[in-house]
Amino acid sequence: MNDLEARVRQRAYELWEAEGQPGDRDQDFWLRAEAEIAAEAEAVAPAAPVATPKPRARKAKADAEGSEKAAAGEAAAPKKPRRKPAASAG
């Protein structure tokens, strides 16, 4: 018998005694004991962190789009150079 089964057995026995030791509801007590112990374990165990996907980089997305256009036979639009903001006279 493993530790979990022993804990369920003990809790089911406690529930059975608390309700006057009826002879026909052993499965009800066992299921209640299992549910209680599972709830305790869930409350104690830390929640697993949810993995969030990282956003794709702009360059990777642009490269992928360019590859798709090249495969389709389309010409890629030329890239525009970035301009630095004009320095204000001040």
Short summary:
This protein has 90 residues and is an all-alpha fold.
Protein architecture, described:
- The chain is mainly α.
- It has a domain at 3-44.
- Helices cover 56% and strands 0% of the residues.
- It is built from three helices and no strands.
- It has helices at residues 3-18, 26-44, 58-72.
- Helix 1 (3-18) crosses helix 2 (26-44).
- The longest helix is centred in the middle third of the chain and has 19 residues, at 26-44.
- The N and C termini lie far apart (84 Å).
- The model has no long low-confidence stretch (mean pLDDT 79).
What structural keywords apply?
mainly alpha, rod-shaped, 90 residues, 3 helices
| Helix-strand pattern | HHH
DSSP strand content: under 5%
Q: Sheet with the most strands?
A: none
Overall pLDDT confidence: 79
Distance between the termini: 84 Å
Overall geometry: rod-shaped
Count all strands and give the number.
0
Helix % is: 55-70%
Number of helices: 3
Describe the secondary structure blueprint for this structure:
Blueprint (H helix, E strand, L loop, with lengths): L2 H16 L7 H19 L13 H15 L18
Helix pairs in contact: 1-2
